[in-house]
Design brief:
Elements lengths: L2 H6 L16 H18 L5
């Protein structure tokens, strides 16, 4: 991730090194995916 570019675009970004991807990458990836899909649905994007 390019934190500098995100900042220039006005996107708040942070390194989240404590995410569980180290020990359960498939499960944590699925949870993150589902969360993003839910957010997009709530905002009116059909996924």
């Amino acid at each position: 991730m390019d934190i500098t570019a995100a900042s220039k675009l006005g996107v708040k970004a942070m390194w989240a090194l404590s995410l569980p991807g180290e020990v359960a990458p498939v499960t944590s990836g699925a949870i993150i995916r589902d969360t993003i899909y839910n957010i997009l649905r709530e905002k009116g994007f059909g996924i």
